[in-house]
TrEMBL record:
PROSITE patterns attached to this UniProt entry: FN3
Alphabetical keyword list: Repeat
Taxonomic classification: Eukaryota, Metazoa, Chordata, Craniata, Vertebrata
Ranges for domain Fibronectin type-III: 127-174
Biological source species: Xenotaenia resolanae
InterPro entries: ECM_Regulatory_Proteins, FN3_dom, FN3_sf, Ig-like_fold
UniProt keyword Amino-acid biosynthesis, yes or no: no
Protein name (database record): Fibronectin type-III domain-containing protein
Length: 174
């Protein structure tokens, strides 16, 4: 049958990947019937610290319960966490001053996974620790510190007097 100008032609297409299967009036919902798992939407970085990064996720409104899997990698460190699909996820025990790639996927009750959402963040470097003055005179000051954990390439040392920076120098890690 040919369609007239005012009519549109529609074709039947299966759409059971989005709708639950109910067998009869009063039957319970079967979450294993959902094949499609929506990826996390609107993932934002809420906070970056020296050893943790927290993310905000928009929860997916659905009768299906999802989990969130967050995989993270750097040049020297990797890990993974699973959590409930909730508003925030915090990844802890990261290395200070390190760039990470975060892969976030949603997992359905039937084990199916969404496509991944990728974010990149660099943890804050840790400050020097155990700073001690070794020499002090009217014209100079010598001090040293223990190297903090994590990756550090440069230190900036500022000498201030009455709130004003009198001198600043940049020192490369050796």
């Amino acid at each position: 049958m040919a369609a007239s100008e005012d009519e549109e032609e529609f074709f039947d297409a299966p759409c059971n990947f989005l709708t639950p299967h109910y067998h009869a009036e009063g039957d319970s919902f079967d979450p294993s019937q959902f094949d499609y798992v929506p990826p996390p939407a609107e993932v934002t970085i809420l906070h970056v610290g020296s050893d943790a990064v927290s993310f905000g996720l928009t929860s997916h409104v659905s009768p299906v319960k999802y989990k969130i899997q967050m995989d993270y990698t750097s040049d020297t460190h990797k890990g993974s966490i699973k959590t409930e699909d909730c508003g925030t996820v915090e990844v802890e025990q990261l290395i200070p001053g390190t760039e990470y790639t975060f892969s976030i996927t949603r997992i359905g009750e039937n084990g199916n996974q969404s496509t991944a959402v990728y974010l990149f963040a660099c943890t804050d470097p840790a400050p020097p620790v155990k700073i001690t003055v070794s020499k002090l005179s009217s014209e100079s000051l010598s001090f040293h510190w223990d190297i903090p954990s994590g990756a550090v390439q440069t230190y900036i040392v500022r000498c201030c007097s009455e709130g004003e920076t009198a001198r600043s120098c940049k020192m490369e890690e050796s």
